[in-house]
Amino acid sequence: MIIELRTDKGLVRSLNEDSIVVEEVLGGKLIVLADGLGGHNAGEIAASMVTEGMARYIKESAYEKGQEENLLKEALDIVNERVYLQSKSVEGQTGMGATVVSAWVFDDRIHIIHAGDSRAYWFDGQRLEQLTVDHSVSNDFKDADQMNEKIRHMVTRAVGTEDTIRGDYQSMPFTDEGTLLLCSDGLSNEVTNEQIEAVLQQYKLPVQIADTLMDQAKAHGGKDNITFALLKRKEVAL
User: Fold this and answer.
1) Domain covering 2-232, topology
2) Nearest to 136 by CA among 167, 108, 113, 115
3) Structure confidence at residue 146 (pLDDT)
4) Residue ranges covered by each domain of the chain
């Protein structure tokens, strides 16, 4: 399996509040990407708690085949409780939280869970598909088009902001010709789906794709932290 990671604070923010962790689990790979909520206290702490906590919980849990969805949801519940309780008890961390997208890849399948506007995409070799739906005001409220842009882009689900969390789960085959992309909104807000698709069509090597996506995100403003992961099953024949 080929994995290419990038994380950068961007061109405006002074601190990188994104976090990404990759772990080997059951002969496959687990990737957890979290984006600390901008404008809130201790976003970088919340993001690290999410990535490290979910990875640790899944690695240390007793696994039974067919329980992937339950295990990912349990991990999300556990870290949500930890972030929420810490935000209530530690000075300077009130209101902290993070969005998350995680992919557990093994046995020729991809198991994905997300909460917030961190995204998962699948490129089948020709076309890009956005797998996740952002949990945002613009998607969750019918009258969102009457609100200002800042409110429309606010997330409606995030880890640690409430005492419970509901993550959306999905599973799909991991095929040889495909590429999985996980990203924070620092990429997806700066580079459109059409532009991401064009990069994946133009370049074959994950390192080329990653370098180009990062360059484009910065060229388009780099207003937020930029973090993403690319996964392919096997080396690309040139």
Assistant:
1) Phosphatase 2c; domain 1 (3.60.40)
2) 115
3) 52
4) 2-232
Is residue 143's pLDDT more than 70?
no
Flag whether pLDDT at 26 surpasses 90: no
Helices (H), 68-182: 68-89, 137-140, 149-152
- Percent of the chain residues topping a pLDDT of 90: 82
Sign, CA dihedral 218-185-224-34, equals negative
**Helix runs in the chain, H state only:** 43-60, 68-89, 137-140, 149-152, 185-188, 193-202, 206-219
Closest to 105 measured CA to CA, from 171, 156, 53 = 171
Q: Return the top range by mean pLDDT from 30-39, 131-140, 147-156.
A: 30-39
Read off the tokens for 3. Answer: 């994995």
Query: SS3 of 36, please?
Result: strand
**Contact call for residues 20 and 31 (beta carbons, < 8 A):** yes
**pLDDT reported for residue 158:** 96
Task: Decide: 92 and 76 in contact? Cβ < 8 Å.
Answer: no
The residue count for the chain? 238
Q: pTM to 2 decimals?
A: 0.93
Give 14: exposed, middle or buried? Use CB within 10 Å, 0-12, 13-18, 19+: exposed
Q: How far apart are CA 211 and CA 232, in angstroms?
A: 16
DSSP-derived 3-state class of residue 229: strand
Location of structure tokens 């620092």: 186
